[in-house]
Amino acid sequence: MEITPLGDSALLIRVAENFDDAPEGALNKVLATKRALEVAQIPGVIELASAYTTVALFCDPVRAVNAGAPVENVFGWFEQRIRKALSEMKEIQPDRIEASLVEIPVCYETEFAFDLEDVARHAGVHCKEVVDLHCGAEYRVHCLGFTPGFPFLGGLPRKLATPRRDAPRKEIPAGSVAIGGKQTGIYPLKSPGGWNVIGRTPLQLFDLQKNPPALLRVGDRVRFRSITREEFERSTS
Amino acid sequence: MNATAVRAGFLTTVQDLGRTGFRELGVSLGGALDPHALRVANLLAGNEESAAGLEITFGGLRLRFAHDRIVVWGGGNFDAQIGSTSSPAGHPALVRAGEEFSIGSPKGGCRAWLAISGGIDVPAVLGSRSGDLRGGFGGVKGRPVRDGEEFPIGENPPRTEVLSKKLRTVRIARWKPPHDWSSTAQRLPVLRYVDGADSDRFVESALQLFNQEAFFVSQDSDRMGIRLDGPPLERSRDVDLLSEAVAPGTVQVPPSGKPILLLNDCQTIGGYPKIAHVINVDLPIAAQLCPGDRVRFSKVSITDAHALLLERERNLEQFRRGLESHFS
């Protein structure tokens, strides 16, 4: 495990060497690391943010010094505490990581699925098979970012992997479900984007009225369920 | 209790010290691009240092007050007035009900922060009043202030009332903070940085170029980041990384070789290799960079960066204590 400064007020903890060979393993390590650091309550830590194989620890060096860190070695002081917290962490078995399963209803009809045909052509299958494959898999949230609440989901059937569009769209509607390379994701807000849009969910992925505001969290399991145009309308009205 | 933006200017947003605790969900830090200038202005106005103020980009703001307020501004090189009286940077000034505070176009730098006694009282969203323009929340309805818009100002803190009485006749205080705390634009800006988390992904000559050459700020720069033109910085491996955390101050290099210095509204994650991180105490200098400006980078150690940060905090603490006499 490597701990690297990310500027003077954050440290990047790289917990797994490899992602592609064992994405679930990397995710579970990340979750376990995060939990151990939360429990450790290291003084001066502002927040933790994970993504794929890393956990970033954002800190206030001034608060750390006030808590006893030496000015000339603030990061050494943090690193020592991070390593201690992680060595005390019990090996967590992947099946013991609690992860909620969230079902996302998606309408894959043409008016919402701008790039479904492109994805089908690239995979060499019919559109219907793209939908079946997309709904047949179970995904996990490896990271939230790009815009608030945007989930990067791993577990896309290999066949559906489609390169990002050459020219990104200026505006992708909120709720759009899309494929970018080996990942699938959902645009929580209207925003520009380069992924291939294959459908739309009526669910709100990021809702400031809710606590937490994001529907999905890193580690969650996700499944998609195909719904009709009518069901979509009913859910949004 | 309101203030009215008679003219909103080029880009005026509500900002405080930013939104923490939600990066994991993809929510940007946001907040004043020069948090130090906002903290200083708030303290001078009798506010908590974290109160929300206005970030004014390229000036052009005219603000009318419905009640007496102490206002303090700092940042780039601007001319500001209360009515027709000049209101210099860093000096607490009394604005009477019905009067206007106005700030012209910058003669150096591009941004100013205005603290108003009582603070801007828009609702806090996810713990901050800062406007997140990309997310469309916080600040004034998640967007920049518009011409003619009214927004709420909090009650004057009791300590401000004391200062208001003292300024009833002179209007503008004679005292101010250290010059470079309220006037932050530099003619030959140099940003100090520490090694990037991915320095090993660049060829040696790229690391040298970054530390020696001048870079120019491109048009395509905003609160998310400053795009720089200069000698291309060659990466030793032509693959992007798996996305991982980035932060304000991170300098990332896309395949074009042209670096991007991230600022407060940057995304929470990025996949371009990070060649450097501008140190915390120099981000206020970055906040004044305008398109066309020339900037250089100079490497320091992390220990130096921390020593500078601690020194700045000690000085601010001393300054805070020194201010007490004006509020009692």
List keywords for this structure.
heterodimer, A: 237 residues, alpha+beta, Gyrase A, domain 2, Cyclophilin, 7-stranded mixed β-sheet, 13 strands, 27% helix, elongated, B: 328 residues, 7-stranded mixed barrel, 6-stranded antiparallel β-sheet
What's the layout of helices and strands?
The complex is a heterodimer of chains A (237) and B (328).
Chain A: E1 2-5, E2 10-14, H1 23-40, E3 45-51, E4 54-59, H2 61-66, H3 74-87, E5 101-107, H4 116-123, H5 127-136, E6 139-144, E7 151-154, E8 169-172, E9 176-180, E10 183-186, E11 191-193, E12 196-200, E13 221-227, H6 229-236
Parallel strand pairs in A: 5-13
Antiparallel strand pairs in A: 1-2, 2-4, 3-4, 6-7, 6-13, 7-10, 8-11, 9-10, 9-12
Chain B: E1 2-7, E2 11-15, H1 35-45, E3 53-57, E4 61-65, E5 69-77, E6 80-82, E7 85-86, E8 93-95, E9 100-103, E10 108-116, E11 149-152, H2 158-166, H3 179-182, E12 190-195, H4 204-212, E13 214-217, E14 225-229, E15 244-245, E16 250-252, E17 260-262, E18 269-270, E19 274-278, H5 283-286, E20 294-299, H6 302-323
Parallel strand pairs in B: 12-20
Antiparallel strand pairs in B: 1-4, 1-11, 2-3, 3-10, 4-9, 5-8, 5-10, 6-7, 6-9, 12-19, 13-14, 13-20, 14-17, 15-18, 16-17, 16-19
Report what the structure shows.
The complex is a heterodimer of chains A (237) and B (328). Chain A is α+β, with helices and mostly antiparallel strands. Chain A folds into 2 domains: 2-96, Gyrase A, domain 2; 101-236, Beta Barrel (Cyclophilin). Chain A is 27% helix and 28% strand. Chain A has helices spanning 23-40, 61-66, 74-87, 116-123, 127-136, 229-236; strands at residues 2-5, 10-14, 45-51, 54-59, 101-107, 139-144, 151-154, 169-172, 176-180, 183-186, 191-193, 196-200, 221-227. In chain A, strands 5-13-6-7-10-9-12 form a 7-stranded mixed beta sheet. In chain A, helix 1 packs across helix 3 (74-87). The longest helix of chain A is centred in the N-terminal third of the chain and has 18 residues, at 23-40. With 328 residues, chain B is α+β, with helices and mostly antiparallel strands. In chain B, the strands form 4 sheets. In chain B, strands 12-19-16-17-14-13-20 form a 7-stranded mixed beta barrel. Chain B has a 6-stranded antiparallel beta sheet with strand order 7-6-9-4-1-11, with no helix packed on it. In chain B, a hairpin with a 7-residue loop joins strand 16 and strand 17 (260-262). Chain B folds into 2 domains: 2-185, no CATH class; 190-309, Cyclophilin, CATH 2.40.100.10. Chain B starts with a strand and ends in a 5-residue tail after the last helix. In chain B, 18% of the residues lie in helices and 28% in strands. Chain B is elongated, with a radius of gyration of 20 Å. The interface between A and B is large, with 46 and 43 residues.
